[in-house]
């Protein structure tokens, strides 16, 4: 990765970390989950409005390091309008990007533009401790998909 690109990526992370997009619970959200990364102290709550297997709206709340906030913020931007299968596929691809594994085979196709937006976090793979920060929002999103509003766990 060129240093210019790295700097640009860093700026996107700092921007999203400072000004998270889709912060708060969207109206009509019907799936929620809480996530916690004790290694770093990051906490997020992901709210999804799922309808007919589609992410109609998504938002999150929480606090933590810039990477956890930026990653969750970027996630909310790419997930809007996706089907649940597409959301899973994006998560697996993103996870592969950060861990260098290859678990996403057989998943639904991932939109190239969406994947490029997530590429800003690729540098995290050089810091294994930070991978948990970058994937916290995604793990929480996966939990939220399985959580109906009336079944939210109470930590
Ligand atoms: Zn963190």
Architecture overview:
This protein starts with a helix and ends in a 9-residue tail after the last helix. Helix 1 (3-18) crosses helix 2 (66-79) and helix 3 packs antiparallel against helix 5. It contains five helices and three strands. The protein is globular and about 45 Å long. By secondary structure, it is α+β, with helices and mostly antiparallel strands. A three-stranded antiparallel β-sheet has the order 1-2-3, covered by helices on one side. Helix content is 46%, strand content 17%. Mean pLDDT is 91; it is low at 151-155. The protein has helices at residues 3-18, 66-79, 84-99, 112-118, 128-146, and strands at 31-37, 42-51, 54-63. Bound molecules: zinc ion.
Helix content: 40-55%
Gyration radius (Cα, Å) is: 15 Å
Strand order of the largest sheet: 1-2-3
Global structural class: alpha+beta
The number of helical elements comes to 5
Which molecules are bound besides the chains?
zinc ion
- The averaged pLDDT comes out at 91
Please trace the helix and strand order, writing H or E for each element.
HEEEHHHH
Q: Give the low-confidence spans.
A: 151-155
Topology:
Elements: H1 3-18, E1 31-37, E2 42-51, E3 54-63, H2 66-79, H3 84-99, H4 112-118, H5 128-146
Helix pairs in contact: 1-2, 2-5, 3-5
Bound molecules: zinc ion.
Question: Can you tag this structure with a few keywords?
Answer:
binds zinc ion, single chain, disordered C terminus, globular, 155 residues, alpha+beta
């Amino acid at each position: 990765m060129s240093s210019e690109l790295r700097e640009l990526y860093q700026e996107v992370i700092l921007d999203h970390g400072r000004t998270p997009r889709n912060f708060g619970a969207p109206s009509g959200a019907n799936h929620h989950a809480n996530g916690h990364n004790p290694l770093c102290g990051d906490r997020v709550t992901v709210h999804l409005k799922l309808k007919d297997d589609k992410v109609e709206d998504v938002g999150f709340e929480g606090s933590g390091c810039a990477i956890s906030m930026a990653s969750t913020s970027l996630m909310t931007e790419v997930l809007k309008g996706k089907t649940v299968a597409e959301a899973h596929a994006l998560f697996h691809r993103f996870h592969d990007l950060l861990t260098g594994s290859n678990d996403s085979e057989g998943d639904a196709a991932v939109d190239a533009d969406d994947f490029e937006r997530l590429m800003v976090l690729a540098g995290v793979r050089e810091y294994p401790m930070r991978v948990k920060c970058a994937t916290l929002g995604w793990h929480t999103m996966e939990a939220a998909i399985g959580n109906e509003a009336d079944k939210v766990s109470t930590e």
